[in-house]
């Protein structure tokens, strides 16, 4: 055989139309290659998300070292029950999403729809609790730039009467709340995008689009959803659990 | 070991009946295409458009600087003009220049695939680019923005009444376009290679794009979040960068340069890939030290993330940190030097011919070396204090970006023009253009090194009269440079209709892209190729020619 | 049970697509039991991190909170996101993300930590 010829030998393996499902795009050799490419692409996208939130976490680390007392006081002003509840909701939603992927893998349409709806409900529940918290912070004048007032932090709160900050440190709680709103805001934005995508996928899943072997969209959306969960897993201790014992 | 392959007789070459250009007709078939080659052409047209807008801004800057007082432009207009020049050239020309056009066209062909892994995302990336570009044009039309391309806080958040938010949004969107391009390349290179195409058989063009894509994927999101914080600070007034609220403006610079320094490598690495291909082809030799060149691309990408604070030596970072960053900056010079040395060694005893792409490549070698070495000067702490924020900086990065990247871009466009269009460009005019570009470039930017060394600060519309002579030189050079850039646009457009028909492999190059018809089929290959030879194997090419195996339909 | 899609493809073509980098990994379907156990672990860890934050451990409070968060993250990444069953390339991708994030943090901190040291 002439080893120098190029592009001549593959002709013996004809493109069997048998193994050519409709969702296989023309430029892939086979379904496995397409699926691996999609998964790898999704992971690369999550890589960009790590760095996106990474910038915020970096800022958080620096300012927490600078203004520790202000961060403690700011953290104490949050509702720990809301944070814990939201963490729980998100973890359960991650579980339901994992089950949805499983249902797609085993080609069960009904359970797939059920788990997806559950995930949507849990995600909305998270956003509702978050909205309640934000409203509360607005009422307390804790929103930097819009209605911030550090006065409350100079006198201590009912739950933490010892949280009395000097006026200049009380001023620095603004940095804590700036980061709090930036981080939870970006996270909530990701949740909203996620829920919208999930609704879109749900509509398509009703027709059985993802229970005939083409599970990549569900699988990759699952990766996204779990990633958003992981971000919250870090936001929760960093924002809510600073020196609660004081 | 060099092999002389005579260039083929092109008089018998015919344009193929079917190619990606004429498979479908009509605007819709272009705007909704999934074909990476068509998207590359869309990109080529749009970045050329933005290049000439950015060039017009540069012309305004040089005209203003012809005379010492600020007479042609008022000082604040001047600020807007150089900001526009920077933003357009960095985000709308340099970052997408080679990857989104030549890279988009060639990466799938070079790895032996039918298309990029995600054609729709590729198209989306172009639409995002266009959306961002349109927004940027609107920003510039309706009042402009005058922060400089760096959006430095607190200037951008507190002291300016220009369109900072919308300009930031435009850059944010352009960033996503760049992320999607990089993501597509990485997946394609990992997952779509033809049988036999191992990592060390890939052309170095692919390696350098791989390295640049890693930077795009990992760096750009940090810029995105930084811009989000700037916008939040400007609109609702959060306090992450605002010192009056306890924030730290230096943090902005850390985050911004964490992207924007690697961005310099995003811009230059693909250009280095072009140079590897061109130099190998026109000296008829395998690139000397293939593995070293390949890994130096990756090394540049990795080191690129460790040096950003050299942009901040005089901004108030700690001396100890500056010391560390200065040392690390020296390290980046090593892989860049490896490339320069290996290209020079490739030329040694090669059968060199001086076609236009090669002339541009020689321009790259000289100018990039000067740009890179002055970068080492600037990385030295003591020198930096004297030279930073002067025209020395301006000259330095223009030597790298224009002398390096733009030369490489033009080298690539000329080199692959026959492949992209099926027709040759006119050789003698283009040689003239290459020489004009080189002369114009040196005349424009070399005086700026001297100006900077003498202490002329950047970003001012006016300057003391003793600097005028050198500034006149620089402006005169810019005129020559302008001619050098207009010429290719004119004769390349001309050649679309009247150029000689190129044939599949006018340069007798070895890459997979040269073994198929020009312009290629929509599917690139009739059958998936099987790769049995190393990159730049001219003896393989010769023996293949001897046995005459046509691969073109 | 497991619908192996790759078996539809003729002659396992993908095997010789990537000779240098075997991409063929078993399509592993994780059983719901695993998901339930992991979900339960995550909930327990959430409860314990909240509880522990009320115990005075000095500067170790932050360490413990972050350690628990890291464990939770690992569980989600390994099982919910299937990294435990993925190719080395995917693992490398995840690692690259964390590596770059650490570069961002440590190199920035070289400035912030040593700023207080003053000039030499």
Explained architecture:
The complex is a heterotrimer of chains A (246), B (553) and C (120). Chain A is an all-alpha fold and 246 residues long. Chain A has a single domain (38-240), classed as Cytochrome c oxidase, subunit III, four-helix bundle (Four Helix Bundle (Hemerythrin (Met), subunit A)). Chain A has helices at 31-66, 68-76, 80-105, 109-139, 152-155, 167-171, 173-206, 216-240. Mean pLDDT of chain A is 88; it is low at 1-18. Chain B has 553 residues and is mostly helical. Chain B has a single domain (26-491), classed as Cytochrome C Oxidase, Chain A (Up-down Bundle), CATH 1.20.210. Chain B is built from 17 helices and no strands. The longest helix of chain B is centred in the middle third of the chain and has 35 residues, at 249-283. Residues 548-553 of chain B have low confidence and may be disordered. By secondary structure, chain C is mainly alpha-helical. Chain C has helices spanning 14-17, 32-52, 60-80, 88-114. In chain C, helix 2 runs antiparallel to helix 3 (60-80). The N and C termini of chain C lie far apart (69 Å). Residues 1-26 of chain C have low confidence and may be disordered.
